[in-house]
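Section 4.2 – Deliverable D4.2 (structural model, holo form)

The reporting period included a commitment to supply a predicted holo structure for the target in complex with S-adenosylmethionine. Inputs used:
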Amino acid sequence: MYVLSYMELYNGDCLDILDTLQEKSVDILYTDPPYIPPQHSSTLTKYKKTLGEMGILESFYKNFIKQIDRVLKDDGILIIYCNSDSYPMFYIHLYPYVKKMRCFIWDKISCSLGYTFRHQHEMIICGERNSMKYIKCGTGDIFKYHAVKANTKTHPAEKPIDLHEHILKNIVNNDSVVLDTFMGTGSIGVACKKLECNYIGIELEHTYFKIAEERINT
Ligand SMILES: C[S@@+](CC[C@H](N)C(=O)[O-])C[C@H]1O[C@@H](n2cnc3c(N)ncnc32)[C@H](O)[C@@H]1O
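Output (structure tokens):
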């Protein structure tokens, strides 16, 4: 019997929704969390910048990764978008839960004009669980895809669907369950729909949730 893939969408805090998901029910965590650091600039004149500022965020992600450990299968994989500030934190907290970590690069091909060394890439941390099987895809770990144009974006951090498809097509099949805990306007969900795999998307902000629902369900 052929079973159609499902799309489960939740509007809420991912830590609360994760609590309700079944143990070892997810194959792939593929998600794009808010980047850090917390805004220090407003207090920069009064207080010295310290690493302690990362504490609030760190404690959130520590809990988050513990929950992911509970729901993700032992042969699963985690793929999390980062920047140079958030990458070290994810590396440290993921370390006990995976056998191997890699850093992928999303190269946006071009950058806007301005000061020198303009930002043109994002980092993506990839962690393989202990029993994960070898991926036979033979592609490199630098992905060249244009960013979504500013005038067509519905979310400031919207990611291109073709980038998600490129990464996911090598690791999903029709039975795979992909979990996206920071769904935004649903670009990952749209890619999963195209790839005909199961998708669970969670988004805190109602406005973004509604846009994601519309994009994924139409
Ligand atoms: C970087 S954006 C994701 C953008 C998305 N990849 C897209 O293409 O539209 C991160 C999203 O996580 C959401 N978010 C932040 N904290 C959250 C939480 N605790 N639970 C669920 N979603 C959260 C934010 O509202 C934001 O929309």
